[in-house]
Design goal:
Distance between the termini: 46 Å
Number of strands: 4
Strand order of the largest sheet: 1-2
Order of helices and strands: HHEEHEEHH
Radius of gyration: 23 Å
Number of helices: 5
Largest sheet: 2 strands, antiparallel
Strand content: 5-15%
Length: 152
Amino acid sequence: MLKATIRGLQEAQAKNAEMIGALQPKGALGEAVKYAVTDLHRYEVTLMHVGRYKQSARGTYYYSRTGGVGGGAMRASLRMDFTDGGDTARGRTFIDPDAVNPLTKRKPVEYSVYENRRGGEHAFQDRTVRERWPTTQRAALAIIQRGLAGRP
């Protein structure tokens, strides 16, 4: 017959519960997602170009390469969203589908797609993923690791 004694079982179970808590949406995992969304949003805004508009003789506004007024409707319509309900922690950045450029009366959600597809310095979404995501990902993983280690 084999007799065994387990020492530290309660401590091990408590540490296990702590680690499981860190991987919940309300724990370190959620903190990491919030950090990532906020960081990516901040970077994405800095990449967006601000257009300038001139007024035509008919009173409508058109995009101008030689100066003008206004601009920034697309940048102002960039939003971030975070959900941490139930067993999900999810974040995203997006162009508000209800935003309207007050000068052109066009929706930034429509022309933002074309701006990003222009590529190069205009590709604010693609560049955010390519240029910023690796750094953001490392920082988010560090938040999770600290949570698993029981450190704030």
